[in-house]
Specification:
With 286 residues, this protein is of the alpha+beta class. It has two domains: 29-73 and 81-117, no CATH class; 126-261, Cupredoxins -  blue copper proteins (Immunoglobulin-like, Sandwich), CATH 2.60.40. Helix content is 40%, strand content 21%. It has helices at residues 2-16, 18-21, 34-67, 86-117, 156-159, 251-261, 271-285; strands at residues 126-133, 136-141, 146-150, 177-180, 184-191, 196-200, 205-209, 215-220, 225-231, 244-249. It has a five-stranded mixed beta sheet, with no helix packed on it. Strands 4-10-9-6-7 form a five-stranded mixed beta sheet, with helices on one face. A hairpin with a 4-residue loop joins β6 and β7. α3 (34-67) runs antiparallel to α4. The chain starts with a helix and ends with a helix. The chain binds copper (II) ion. The site of copper (II) ion (CU) has 6 residues, from loops.
């Protein structure tokens, strides 16, 4: 008992120390999409219900142990047996209560949150294809003809502990995904090699990127800012080194950024330059 006590105390101290707390956020990030908001509501609802149930059940249990025990002169109840209907009350009422909580109190809002993920009632205003690769992300805007890769830029020195870790350690990339605020976006995920998973906690979205399959979800980001996430499907030795960074900007800034990303039409190759080489090859062959 004493060692258990000590163990509990050391766990509390470890959790409570400032060093352990630094860099950890214990709550969800601020939700910036309807999906994230609904998910957070769902989480809070479940937490409240299970906490009430926990204290109710354990409170009743401890109260019963303390007051209705044999030493105080109480006799055990005798409501079991073939012809006793009371036992069915004790079996069926918790069952009915849990059924109601799971399928109605939790079920309806959970259904609503999940449906938001696949909201195809209106067309998306922008399509982004996200391709996972060992170990980087490729972003394509198929309609706009823009395509580029996004990889980690945390210096190796920081990873090997040779240098102090930066503010966005392992969560910084060379080319972030840029998205317009307030637009309904259809995300398509896929992969070039193994299964990855594209995850941005503030968006409340995570979808596996599966080779050979196109998977999709819809989301509208309601607030500008920089949002960070990670690959969340173990995909090889550098799984921890393929973060997701999304810059959500105003519509004008997005248009400007998109224009700067558009490939410049290649100048037509001078036809004359190609011919002498071809002729020379042909001449040589003859
Ligand atoms: Cu991955």
């Amino acid at each position: 008992m004493r060692s258990l006590y000590k163990f509990g105390l050391s766990v509390l101290l470890a959790l409570g120390s400032a060093a352990a707390l630094a860099g950890y956020a214990f709550n969800f990030p601020e939700p910036v999409t309807p999906i994230a908001r609904e998910t957070l509501h769902m989480h809070n609802l479940v937490m409240v219900v299970i906490l009430v149930m926990f204290f109710l059940v354990f409170g009743l249990l401890i109260y019963s142990f303390r007051t209705h025990n044999k030493a105080a002169g109480y006799q055990a109840g005798k409501f079991t047996g073939p012809n006793n209907r009371k036992q069915w009350l004790w079996v069926l009422s918790p069952f009915a209560l849990l059924f109601f909580i799971d399928y109605v109190v939790f079920g309806i809002p959970a259904y609503h949150a999940v449906v938001l993920y696949e909201d195809t009632k209106t067309d998306a205003e922008l399509v982004v294809k996200v391709t996972g690769s060992q170990w980087l992300w490729q972003y394509d805007f198929p309609a706009e003809g823009v395509s580029y890769t996004s990889r980690l830029i945390t210096p190796r020195d920081q990873i090997d502990s040779g240098a102090a870790k930066g503010e966005h350690y392992l969560l910084e990339v060379d080319n972030p995904l840029v998205l317009p605020v307030g637009k309904k976006i259809r995300f398509i995920t896929t992969s070039n090699d193994v299964i990855h998973s594209w995850w941005v906690p503030a968006f409340g979205v995570k979808r596996d990127a599966v080779p050979g399959f196109l998977r999709e979800f819809w989301a509208t980001v309601e607030k500008t800012g920089t949002y960070r996430g990670q690959c969340s499907e173990l995909c090889g030795k550098e799984h921890g080194f393929m973060p997701v960074v999304v810059n959500v900007v105003s519509q004008e800034e997005f248009a400007k950024w998109l224009a700067s990303k558009k490939p410049v039409a290649p100048a037509p190759a001078p036809a004359a330059a190609a011919e002498p080489v071809a002729q020379a090859v042909v001449a040589k062959a003859q």
